[in-house]
Write a structure and sequence with these properties.
heterodimer, A: 328 residues, mainly alpha, ABC transporter involved in vitamin B12 uptake, BtuC, two-stranded antiparallel ribbon, two-stranded antiparallel sheet, 14 helices, 2% strand, B: 325 residues, alpha/beta, Rossmann fold, 2 domains, six-stranded mixed sheet, 12 strands, 46% helix, 17% strand
Chain lengths: 328, 325
């Protein structure tokens, strides 16, 4: 849409207003919660929001890399729905090996790492070599990987009390909960790798326009393949936070993780000026979704209404993002 | 007939006992207190009833409720306790949940917030209110053994025996009873049902099981700790046209009592709980604690054994769910 239409006389920029609306709505919502929920705007609640969003943040890192490499068209572009399942599988393997098979954590983690690499490489192979769509491939992979985890854990809860997991759960690093501090470092590493290295910029170029990238001599399939491997690696990393959060592996935690990952990543895109998925956007999205959930709970909102309110709010935000995109 | 008389008698006894307790507890109040109520999920009748019972009673006693729902995800349920801690509530009632909640209970206790549990015994809780799980386990063991004439092959859905203490008691005592029936064999490996989406998951697993064990090679399917999976088990039996297998389970909400009351239902035995009374009793216990009374570590709420269709109809009525023809 030409600027002359979007910009009204008197300097009011409709496109800009619509574009800013998602952020404004979230800020308004959080302020409203802050006034209505005791203790919401305190350092302890902020730490809680950060702590509870950590597993989602880490799987979001993985998904955002795949979306950036494959393009952000949900159907034909890059998407990896299997990351939460990989996280749950790795958590299951580690808990099973450490608690039931009494293996050292390092060995268990290596096994989980191997499993994650297999999932990532399989995804990459099916998408880049066989030509399957990422949406279908990774959804089928999600189901299969959860199935493997059910076999490994016999669909049962397994406790874990390995020192590293308890450290992530209970300890602090420079004033922050340990899990939050380490996740923050992971975010910085991912942002640096994707937004500040030549390889990362090439990966984004491939996702932006496959044809243009090919003309400049880049091989899109190479980047897409490795993005799936990186996503699975993020799943592996997330498994430690999943284990810390639940003091073990509980069956059935993958569904909520999947929902929040997709929500956070694409909600994050609504916050970026160009409406594209970015690593920081996804991280911000994950933190905001957690803040909203905790805010509603703190306000004592009737639990039967929470899902509807949260879902509607997110729909509005994403719709405004899309509307602002169409006005360009 | 004796079964109906017994069920009515138990029902009357329970309601009389509750009325008597309620009258004696007239002095109790939660005025000015903020009570956190955390439930693992609200999709199933049992969870929803216990949750509603707790909330209603807290409000009736003048308290304010901060409610959180885990959406049937044990990790989210555990996380929700951190929200209640940050909210500085005066006490927490926690309904169900696996071991993921233990460190959260400990943190609440360390912050001086007393924890009251429902169906989850914990060293960090002041009191756990629950059904008489021991009676449930042995009764369903006897009923099932009788239903298959004391011999035969039994498949069991048993995902939670090791994860939840209440399930350990129920399934453990069911097995204890069966150990006196040398002719009854529990098929291995045991089945593990999903926590969320249990009926559909159990339906699929039962269809697989039935194709593995043709007519005459399996006599019963038992669900060790609850009865939502039994809904799917019954569906699968009907789909496969199998009438040679009986189903037993535990919980006895209106949905499963209705299935039991149908003519020729394969679902032959259950032990019904009173989840709303359990939630309500837990809230009363919070008020008793604040009134300076000493609570026993466990409060048991009576259960109603249900053997056959007629007793299912009687239990349905006595538990206040309506009438079944």
């Amino acid at each position: 849409m030409p600027d002359s239409v979007a910009t009204r006389p008197g300097g009011f920029d409709l496109r800009r207003a619509v574009g800013m609306a998602p952020v404004a709505i979230f800020v308004a919502m959080l302020i409203y919660i802050g006034f209505n929920a005791p203790n919401f705007l305190t350092w302890s609640t902020i730490q809680l929001v950060l702590s509870q969003s950590v597993p989602v943040v880490v799987v979001c890192l993985g998904l955002s890399v795949v979306v950036m490499a494959g393009g952000d068209d949900v159907v034909s572009g890059g998407i990896d729905l299997s990351v939460p399942a990989t996280a749950i599988l790795c958590a299951g393997i580690i808990a099973q090996q450490v608690t039931l098979a009494e293996q050292p954590l390092f060995l268990a983690a290596m096994l989980a790492f191997g499993a994650a690499l297999i999932v990532g490489a399989l995804n990459g192979f099916l998408v880049t070599r066989i030509g399957m769509t990422p949406l279908l491939t990774s959804l089928a992979m999600f189901v299969a990987v959860v199935g493997v985890n059910n076999v490994i854990t016999a669909s049962r809860r397994i406790d874990i009390d390995a020192p590293l997991i308890l450290f992530l759960r209970d300890d602090r690093i420079v004033g922050l909960p340990a899990g939050v501090a380490i996740a923050l470092v992971l975010c910085v590493v991912f942002v640096f790798a994707i937004h500040h290295t030549k390889w990362g910029l090439n990966l984004q170029a491939v996702g932006g326009s496959r044809e243009a990238a090919e003309v400049s001599g880049l091989r899109p399939s190479h980047f897409l393949f490795w993005s799936f491997v990186i996503a699975a690696f993020a799943g592996f990393l997330a498994s430690f936070f999943v284990l810390a959060r639940g003091s073990g592996s509980s069956p059935g935690t993958e569904d909520n993780l999947l929902l929040e990952m997709v929500l956070a990543t694409f909600l994050g895109a609504s916050f970026s000026p160009r409406r594209v998925v970015t690593v920081w956007g996804a991280v911000l999205g994950a933190v905001l979704v957690a803040a909203l959930s905790i805010g509603f709970k703190s306000m004592g909102v009737n639990v039967f209404w929470t899902g509807l309110i949260k879902g509607s709010l997110i729909l509005i935000v994403v719709a405004l993002g899309a509307a602002s995109q169409r006005m360009r | 007939m004796w079964g109906i008389v017994k069920a009515v008698a138990v029902g009357t006894l329970v309601s009389t006992a509750f009325v008597a307790t309620a009258q004696a507890d007239g002095h109790l109040s939660l005025e000015g207190k903020r009570i956190g109520v955390a439930v693992v999920g609200t999709q199933h009748f049992w969870d929803r009833e216990a949750f509603t019972g707790a909330i209603e009673t807290v409000e009736k006693l003048g308290g304010e409720v901060v409610q959180v729902d885990g959406g049937r995800d044990n990790q989210v349920h555990a996380d929700n306790h951190d929200v209640l801690l940050a909210n500085e509530v005066d006490a927490v009632i926690s309904i169900l949940g696996d071991a993921a909640v233990e460190p959260k209970f400990e943190a609440l206790k360390n912050a001086g917030i007393p924890v009251f549990t429902v169906d989850h015994p914990s060293p960090h809780a002041i009191n756990n209110t629950t059904s008489d799980n021991y009676y449930m386990g042995t009764t369903i063991g006897r009923y099932m053994a009788d239903a298959i004439g004391g011999s035969g092959k039994v498949a069991v859905f048993n995902a939670f025996e090791g994860a939840l203490r209440i399930c350990g008691i129920r399934t453990g005592l069911w097995k204890y009873v069966l150990s006196d029936y040398p002719e009854i064999e529990i098929l291995q490996p045991e089945l593990a049902e999903e926590f969320a989406n249990a009926p559909e998951d159990a339906r699929k697993q039962t269809l697989d099981l039935l194709s593995q064990y043709p007519e005459g090679t399996i006599d019963a399917i038992h669900v060790g700790c609850w009865d939502q999976p039994a809904i799917g088990v019954v569906q699968a039996l009907e789909e496969a046209g199998r009438t040679d297998v009986v189903v037993t389970a535990l919980d006895g909400g209106p949905d499963t009592l209705e299935i039991m009351a149908e003519e020729g239902s394969p679902f032959v035995a259950n032990v019904a709980q009173q989840p709303r009374l359990i939630g309500s009793t837990s809230a009363m216990n919070v008020a008793r604690h604040f009134a300076g009374e000493t609570l026993l570590p466990q409060t048991y709420v009576d259960v109603v054994p249900v053997n056959g269709a007629e007793e299912a109809k009687a239990a349905y009525q006595n538990l206040g769910y309506g009438t079944l023809e």
